[in-house]
Amino acid sequence: MIDLKDVTKLYGSTTAVNRLSLHVAAGEIYGFIGPNGAGKTTTIRIMGGIIEPTSGSIIIGGIDMKRQPVLAKSIIGYVPDRPFLYEKLTGMEFMKFIGDLYRVDSASFPGRASSLLEQFALHDWQNEIIEAYSHGMKQRLIIASALLHDPKVMVIDEPMVGLDPSAVRMVRDILKDLAARGVTIFVSTHTLSIAQDLCDRIGVIHKGLLLAQGTLAELNHAARTGEADLEDVFLTLVKEA
Ligand SMILES: Nc1ncnc2c1ncn2[C@@H]1O[C@H](COP(=O)(O)OP(=O)(O)OP(=O)(O)O)[C@@H](O)[C@H]1O
Ligand SMILES: [Mg+2]
Asked: What is residue 33's three-state secondary structure?
């Protein structure tokens, strides 16, 4: 469902992403972890069609992002790390704004928006302006709005930052449920316990290079760390690199 081939992104003399190739199957949750500045956000922005790679190809759901960017974006739900919200809008108005951007038809919009706001425990807040929302509520609203057009692929940059434990569990359960229904999820995080618990496979990126990828057992094999948890594997891989 997601195919990256030799994706490279240069910023001047910095190689933010270095010949990255990876495949994520339909319904799979792929976690992307790596130190600060490793290239996670750059990769996610490329996959979301926000920036273009210097070279390499991105195929999402069989659609070439370079040739048909609008079509590709129509099947992607993109959640940026630092989302922009129009804070003078109410939650429901914001949903309508995003729904219009993604051409969600007006007949199915109300039911869809309502059930998403309910799912993300924002129903009681739908008519309040976003300015009054807490950080975690804004984050939940962004994820809810990214699901409005029923995307086949979710690309999410650090969804759990600033969420309280029950919101973390809520988002985790929603992502797992989406994957069980066939949605493919690519998610970056610094919370390794969540990555270990949520993801089917994990890729470790450092200085733009994919150091290893696979299940926890496969990563342990690559790092020769026995049966260590993801944190130990991560620290070992990054130290060796
Ligand atoms: N717009 C930009 N202009 C110049 N350099 C950039 C730009 N965006 C990212 N970089 C550089 O690319 C590299 C990768 O950055 P990126 O934001 O992708 O890392 P990250 O893995 O998301 O890090 P973090 O964990 O801190 O979010 C870094 O060296 C960064 O300084
Ligand atoms: Mg980042």
From this structure: strand
Q: Is the pLDDT of residue 13 over 90?
A: yes
| Structure confidence by residue, pLDDT tens digits, 94-119 | 999 999 999 999 999 999 999 999 99
Report yes or no on 109 lying in a domain. Answer: yes
Question: Ligand 1: which atom is nearest the Cα of residue 41?
Answer: 22
Cα(44)–Cα(158) distance, rounded to whole angstroms? 10
Is 106 part of a structural domain of the chain?
yes
Between the alpha carbon of residue 237 and those of residues 45, 126, 152, 213, 219, the distances in Å are 25, 44, 32, 11, 9
With a 6 A CB cut-off, is 33 part of the ligand 1 pocket? Answer: no
Report residue 184 as tokens.
């493919």
Nearest to 156 by CA among 18, 2, 31: 31
Angle 6-78-148 from CA coordinates, rounded to 5° = 145
Amino acid at 196: Q
Report which bound ligand comes closest to the CA of 20: 1
pLDDT digits (tens, 9 = 90+) for 121-180: 999 999 999 999 999 999 999 999 999 999 999 999 999 988 899 999 999 999 999 999
Q: Which domain holds residue 124?
A: 85-150
How many domains does the chain contain in total?
1
Please report whether residue 132 resides in a domain.
yes
Report yes or no on 124 lying in a domain. yes
47 three-class SS: helix
